[in-house]
Amino acid sequence: MSELSLRQHWIEKTAFRILSEHSNIYFESSIGWVIFALMKTKHLILRGFIFFASLCLTLPAAWGKIHHLKIPSMALADSNRVIIATPSNFEQHRPAKYPFIVMLHGWSGDETQWKKDADLQILSDKYDILLILPDGGYDGWWVDSEVSPGRNYDTHIRQELKIWAVTNFNGATNASQHGVLGLSMGGFGAINQAIKYPDDYAAAASLSGVMDVTRHTDNWHLSNALGLYADDPKRWERNNPLHIAQKKAPRHAPDMILICGRDDFTFEENQDMAAILKKSGYASQVQWEAGTHSHTFWKTHVGSAVAFIVSHFKE
To answer: pTM, whole model, 2 decimals?
Structure first.
């Protein structure tokens, strides 16, 4: 074994020892292992260890409040803010870990958007869950951008945010108690997460989600995240729910629900997406309601989206 391999092996063992000694948690090693995939050089190995330790050694959480925080991130150059809602009776060391839902905001918003569009504390208390609201940037589209360095929102969710919730807020370690939900741009991100990473979530919900970005190539600064469509249409398709869902559903895919207003400009593509999900064998539901692409619609129906996800959590 080379010197580099020996050092990396020691770092991996030490990081997981820190987790068990200081956070009193255990989780699937596959979640933590992705951090070390970033370590390509000796310099990055040390940097990665410091980063991983910082994820695990954040100050203990207070309970029963809505926290505005920042988390360590190697995936993002900025936008590492997060809001987390904890139940009023939150217990940091409760044996039963807290299920959680990652809530993705829409285009031109940030993590604070959900404070306007959802009664966070009420929902957290009602279902005894954590609600985690990351910042996806003004126009990040919840993807790992190949054209804008330091905007790897997909990686941030899966390899940083979820670890952080587990280590610092007594979050559930089992993906069968993880959900993802989003509105508009966030609905795009939520369904992408569910389809791309079916082992990572129990369920996903979209409110007025953009399901086919190839219909909107000149809109919403999409080129900042995906480049110009004419330059690389395949890149757009690789990150597009409507295209990704055309592959046969894996055996253990998360359940999904699409909620959309009949007068929403995304209604047609949501209908098309529902048909593709059904054809590909995904367990999915639709909820077509009166309404438009609006804050009123989202606040009215976010409770249904959360209830759907929670109903699919398993012990």
So the answer is: 0.82
